[in-house]
Each structure stands twice: as structure tokens, then as C-alpha cells.
Fold this protein.
Amino acid sequence: MKILHVVHQFPSPPSGGTERVVFALARSMADAGHDVTIVAGTIEGGTARELREGLVEDLRVVKIPREDLFFESWEKAWSPSVGERFAALLRAQRPDVVHVHHWLRLTTDLVRIARREGVAVVACTLHDYWTQLATPTRPVGLDRPEPPAGPRWSNEAERREAFAAHRADLVDELRAADLRFAPSAAHARGIEAFAGVPLGAIETTPPPLLDVPERRAAPSGPRGRTLLFWGSIYREKGLDVVLDALASVGGWRLVVLGEVHDPAYRERLAARCAHLPVEFRGRFTPADLARVSADYAVVPATSHESYGLVIDEARCVGLPLIASDLPSFREHADPSASLFFTPDDPGSLAMLLLDDARLLAMREPMPHAVRASESAAQLLARYADVRAQVRPPLAHAPRFTGAMRAALLFRRAERRLWSALQNGGPVVPPEGFLGD
């Protein structure tokens, strides 16, 4: 089969969880003899008429740049120029399968474009909450949709209007897919609850590990008191929770593998760790996980995770797990080798760190990892199932029509024009302007 995997970015080497999963699937499908191309967005500006093609470990990668300003903003997720270029690419490539993994930096109608162009199988995987919350993360405790922060030139009424449009647009997009996947059943339930309307079945397909780390040597004596944290480091990963807990209990140390990409957050962490037993080791590879001297893996996420590849990695290397009590984590953690604390609660974590009896009773986890070949084979079988069926036409009425999009964009443009003419700068128009 000729397969296009579509994702918001594709650096080399892949760094984020979504990119790692896409790379593992694409690599495995190509190794199985399929013709695979990765279509990616890019943070670098340019013109959508100029595709950027290259190879990443013999995989063909085609990047479609955005030519407009501030395209990282959720309010500007739809791009007609990217849509036109994507449609032209489909006509030139004539793929059998288009599998969308993310819309960010591209456009919100990738699935519908593929359907219109007659692609035999159109699938999507929901790796995060962006389709329903306009941001990848869902903080613990957020149980109803709320719009994320907007730019300073957008007032509250406009922000809510744009958020409602984003959600309706992406519901139409998901309903247009032949296959919808989520990394965990917990994440599928969350997406369905936030959508508020039937999306069609969301199947669970646990993501593969790109590189399965080696098993570490079994400890020869009682466990010590060293925690290991690894991955991309940003606020939602909850490292602050561990630091607060360490500040209130003694006798523990923390080793951190990974990079902090936000300079302000990096400085904040450095200041907080000045008098704590914390060691930052920076960039790492999966092989490093088996070499670091540690006794427990700590996964303190403060937002709902769609899966949590780090849980599988901890099981592979044989580290007992201390983690936020999230449904997706419990779904694939080893119960006999895991302890859970209240998310975003340093006191709850500190109480676990002081509970010697529970800590010492933990076993080494049973090895676990979804291999790329297994996950790819499962997806290929589902693609084949859809190709063998007679596809019904889209029967549902769209929640967000072209006329509605045009009206939304007209109002937005008029607000910006009012601001520029009246104030010479990005000043919010008064309440009630154009129906606010």
C-alpha cells in the first residue's frame, strides 16, 4: 500500500511522543514493503506552494510550510493554502491510505480533503486533547471545555466564538474519518466526553516504543532512595511537584534526564534546585535508562496523558513506578510495581516517599512494550478491512459550514481593521462590536 502519515512536525531525530510514534510506525511499515511518506508541518515560515522534501533514515518526508503570521495560534489553525497544497499532493501521489496524527501547523480539514480526493482509507489518531480543547494538554480537574488564552488583541467574546468554531470544525473532521484511534481507552473516553456528540467508534491502539531500552541489572540488596525522571521537561510534566516533595522530606535524591526548552522555566528550575539533591544530566537516549543508578521511576504529570510512553520504558528497564494517579497510567502500569499519588499534590507524593513499608513491598515490574512491528501490523490490518468494504457516503450534517467559517473570518477581519484605523495598533474593539 501507498501510505501517507501526516503529523505537525518531524525533526530528526524525532523528539516528542507523537513524532516518535509516527516514526516507529512509518519505519516498520516501510520495512514491511509498503511505500510510506511522512507529510509534516513546520515551525519555519515560508510559502505553502514550495514543498520541502528530504529523507530521514531513508523515509521520505514532505514538509508544507505556513505562509501566514502567528500560525501557531489555535485561532488560526485552518489554512486554505495548506489545504490546497495538500490536495495537490494527494492528486500527485494517489495514496491508498492517509493517516492524520496531528493538524497543528497544517490545517483543520486534512481528513475531509483526503475524503474529497477519493483516498481509499482515511484514519486519524488522537494523540492529545488539541481537537477538543485547542491545546494539547488537559489539566487535572478540567472537566468541561474552556477556551485557552487568546492573543492580547482578542476579547473574551471573540475568544469564545473562535473556540466554539474550533471544536465544531474538528468534530466534523473526526466524524469524516474511516478509522479513529486513541492510545488508551481512558483517552478515548475523555475525547468522547468533551466532544459532546457522537464521533463514531474510537479504537484503542497503544503506541509503540521507538527504541525498547535494555533491562537494568537487578539490585543486589535493598532499594535505595534515588528517583529517576526523564523525558521532555515542561511545566505539565510536573517536575515542580517532585521538587516540592523533596523539599519537605529528607534522604531522597533525584536524577533528571532530558532538556528544558523554555529558558525562563530552565532558570526557575535551576534556582529551585540550588539547595536540593537534584542532578540534571541533559539529553539522553533510551539506552541511558538502564545505566543510570536509580531505584524508582517518578512520573508526576499534572495534566491528563493520552498514554505515557515513560510507563512502558520504566517497565522495560525494571524500575518500580511512582506516578500521578491518572486513568491512562493505571491502564498499562504493572499494579504490583506501582504506587500512585494525587496529581499536582506534593504532599501526597511526600507521604508516599515516607512510607517505607509500601515502597519496599513493590516488585520489579514485568517487562512490557508495544513493538513497532506489532502496532504497525494491527494498523495495516484495519486499513485492509476498510479497503475491503463499501464505504458509505458521509451522512451527517456538518456542525461548521463554509458559510459559518466565512462569517467568522469576516467578523475577525473587521475587528482588526477597526482596531488599526481607530487606534493605530492592536487594541480590542468595544463590547458589542459586530455582534460580540
Observations:
- The chain has a mean pLDDT of 91.
